[in-house]
Amino acid sequence: MKFAACTVDGARLVEPTPHEDFRGRFMRAWCAIEFAQNAIDFTPVQANMGFSRMRGTVRGMHYQTAPALEAKLVRCTRGAMFDVVLDLRPASRSFRAWFGAVLSAANGQMLYIPEGCAHGCQSLEDETEFHYMASAPFSPEHATGVRHDDPAFGINWPLPATAVSEQDRNWPLFGSGMARTARSNA
Question: Known catalytic residues?
Answer without folding.
Answer: 62, 132
